[in-house]
Amino acid sequence: MDYFHRRDGELFCEDAKVRDLAATFGTPLYVYSRRTFAEHFAKLDLAFADVPHLICYSVKSNGNLGILRALASMGAGADVVSGGELYKAMLAGIPPEKIVYSGVGKTRTELELAVRSGIRSVNIENVEELRVLSDIAVANGRRQECALRVNPDVDAHTHEYLTTGRKENKFGIPLAQAGNAADIAAGLPGIVLTGLDMHIGSQILSPVPYRMALAQAAGIVADLRARGCDIRHLDIGGGLAVRYDHEKPMTADEFHDEIISLVRELGVDLILEPGRFIVGPAGILVGEVQFVKEAGEKRFVVLDAGMNDLIRPSLYGAHHRIEAVVDGVGEPVLTDVVGPVCESGDFLGKDRQMLPLHRGDLVAAFTAGAYGFAMSSNYNQRPRAAEVLVDGSTVSLVRRRETMADLVRAEVEV
Ligand SMILES: *Cc1c(COP(=O)(O)O)cnc(C)c1O
User: For 286, which of 9, 68, 134, 138 is 20 to 30 Å away at the CA?
Assistant: First the structure.
């Protein structure tokens, strides 16, 4: 579900004509629909209205302040994985008591920032991290609440780069070590263990892996409580899928219905960390056709948007639906939509049946709101794209296009 639609052969984002946005702000351009991510947030929030819960939006999926501020105003918390994300989440007005911090390699500086900010929970991925965190908390005269991130060893049936809850992944504490970690935590003066956390992967279509992970969690919660820990929250991570192509992802209600009985039995506050589910469908990347090249049976359409703007196709072989912004005419041709970057792996879509495109035409890659701009780079010394946020007919530039000066801003002349 999203608010990108066609009127009289033209693509709109809510009530804004995408062609006008491109004319005003240039290309490559990320366009976000506020109504789309607001509805996805609300759907999940409503689905879980029957239990105490907190939706901690995964900042890494899209960390634009405009989006963070909008979500903050809807009551969202944040799941952060770096000091930078923590900084931005707080700058956007997300209260620290709604922020949880995950990540396998948190530095001392990052943990200090977390402790001093008074965040809700540090998700512990490593027994050593317990000691480091305790020392930092003591030095700051605080007691930090934390959760153990366990690795439930379930298969989320997703891309190998997107699975995080198998024992061969680097994330979380192995289940068998959770009890020992809790005993260590109990002996440390700066921390108090109040939660259990897991995140089993991303782009997970079915609620079944969550149910399996929760069944594992139930045993751990019982064990930790038997050891004297007051476990009050369970964080089941993010990972809810979106539709890129012909997938049939679970709905928020289906997700809720499958797991809610287990959550209730545990008597915990539930934390969710969705990213993609909220912002994925809410964004498109718009590029302009620079050149069209015919090569035998195939047509290459070269855009001014490439892998440095949207790396998912190159990195994961991910599929993004691609359409002309203004309806074309003619017969469909087998088309590769590629970028200008000097890499053969630089493409947005391959072997697509598309109507003929011409120099100057605009093309949109859909479902690019999550892990789109967030993973973009300056590779090939390309200034990063602008981002606009559309709310009905109101359009706000929420990140200006980078300039040549931005490319050298942090470099030091010697
Ligand atoms: C990436 C990540 C998320 C969000 O994943 P989505 O698939 O975008 O929902 C949530 N929690 C943690 C710990 C993550 O690393």
Answer: 68
